[in-house]
Amino acid sequence: MLPISRFDTEVDQMVAHTCELAKLESPSNNKAAADACAERLVADLKTLNPARVEVDPQPDRGGNVIAYWPDSAGNETGGIVLMCHYDTVHPVGMLDTNPLRVEGDKLYGPGVWDMKASIVQVMTALRVLQAEGQWPDVPITFLITSDEEINSAGSLHLIEGLGKTAGLVLCMEPALDNGDVKVWRKGVGQFTITTRGVATHSGSHHHLGVNALAEMAHHITFIESLTDYDKGTSLSVNMISAGTAVNTMPDECTVQVDLRVMDANEGKRVVELIHGLQPKLAGASIEVEGDVQRPPMPYTEPIAKAYAHVRAVSEQLGDPVGKGGTGGGSDANFVAPLGTPVICGLGPLGAGAHTPTEYVTVSTLARKTALLAGIMSEWTPASFA
């Protein structure tokens, strides 16, 4: 296993490479910008001598990038799948607000932490394993998607397809704040609820109206009441739109609802309750759209075995890594229900994801990359038996 010190010499190059990728701003909904970033990723991957690099084109998003390294027998399945995404939430031009710069131990810039530094981390680990003759004789696949920030609809077929046949999936989302990996994640649901009534002048014809906002108030109270911290379930009504004037009763009201849930059955129960909402006021109607977009990632036995491997490697490196979880979702959520061992949060430390102050903690790049390299070099299909 390669020591952390081997990767200390790679940090300056990793910082420079991360900056190069961050300069290629790649918001999820900007196809031209995203495709330009994907083109650079393909070029970078080809320097690592994969058997092949493919781009899975998308009609209105950047293409998904996949690189394959088969084992000595030519197998491409049954090994390790690494997952990153190159899309960001930051629109083109955010470099003016948060320019690329290193201040002390922090590399600032839009998308550097979530998650272009993680892409560089994977490429560095693979390059060093090749250079040092530590490449494992197992299939390795590197998937870099273009739409993780917008629910992964265009990459889900790849995530699930590769996840079904993998022996181990490593999701390179940022680590927890204390450096721990993520062995569980809550499922994520989103809903749009619309109530409709009858608009009228609120002074002269109040009695003829049906207030869609008043109707919605009944449902907001109920939805919020479904939160149950003991079950790990939370619901919040986070956006509302209604009304055209202060003296006019609104005939339509729309809210956006966020759901987080630990258990798939609990998620199903809550979804049924929300879709079962019925009008409370005479003459009102209600429409509900939405579901759980990312299923929960519970701490299962396969994940526990995968974590035991990660922990053993980290201890050998002299940098023990703990385990934890989060209410946020990632593409690892789609892998867990397949029964495949998956570990998330193997990326570097940092802060400010999705904000104008996003940064990566530079001093964590070497040890997190050494951990990733060790997880791969020490893994065999019998590792979790």
Defining traits:
four-stranded antiparallel β-sheet; 18 strands; six-stranded mixed β-sheet; Aminopeptidase; Alpha-Beta Plaits; 385 residues; 24% strand; alpha+beta
Number of domains: 2
The shape is elongated
| Largest sheet: number of strands, sense, barrel closure | 6 strands, mixed
Order the strands across the largest sheet as they lie in space: 1-2-6-3-7-16
Radius of gyration: 23 Å
CATH class wording of the largest domain = Alpha Beta
Helix content: 25-40%
- Strand content range: 15-25%
Number of strands: 18
* CATH H-tier superfamily of the largest domain: Zn peptidases
What are the low-pLDDT stretches, counting only 5+ consecutive residues below 50? Answer: none
Order of helices and strands: HHHEEEEEHEHEEEEHEEEHEHEHEEEH
Could you please say which CATH topology of the largest domain applies here? Aminopeptidase
Instruction: Report mean pLDDT, rounded to a whole number.
Output: 97
> Ends: how far apart?
21 Å
CATH architecture descriptor text of the largest domain: 3-Layer(aba) Sandwich
